[in-house]
Give the backbone structure.
Amino acid sequence: MNRVMSFCATTVVAVLPSSLLAQPYEPPWPPEPPPPQPARLLWGFSLNGGAPTGYFGNVVGAGFGFSGQLVWMPSPGPFGLRCELSYLEYGSETFAVPIAGTAGRVDQEVTTSNAIARFAVGPQLMARSGSIRPYVYATVGTSDFFTMSSLRTLNGGYDDYDDYSTVDTLNYEAWTFSYGVGGGVQFAVARKVFLDLGVRYVASPSATWLAEGDLVDEGTGMAVPYPRHSPANLFEITFGVSFGR
């Protein structure tokens, strides 16, 4: 009898693990969602404040503008390719011009603006997770230093102050090579929505540009530009919003 009981116990111990392993696996229900993947494409826009340096900063004042950026992240890692487009106005002047046929009694306003438009690309290194994400980047590109004048003209009667159209004229333009380095921090405010605070340094080693007063009316009916040539470098502070998808 003892031998029979011992044989049964040995059989149960030998067979039980095999029977447990043979049980079909049942996945949990409901199934667990896959972990979220980092955004492969980031984009955003910002308002910019610029502080020119050197001789450029001695002649012109602070500048203000805006920019947009697109960052492609080819893998879940920290490396990406940044493309940015920016506009910065560093000076303007407004003066009155008499309307012909009014004996100088009615004036129109002409505004002349000096600005920089820039396009650049380069590598970016950034944190891909967390509610606070620092980043750094370097770019190379081209900057367009240009001066444009705008004249508002009346379309109808003089009593209709809202009936205006604007005429724009490009007075001067010069393209040059530029490069920049920058960095900042993104603060998460919603899913894939971030407040973006950054700084950057943009250098144009050999630029030709106009400042206020460099577009001169010499009495010939044409405004003559007197450009300056120097490095045109500036520090910028950027504040904006970035998105991921």
Q: What stands out?
A: Residues 134 and 185 are 4 Å apart (CA to CA).
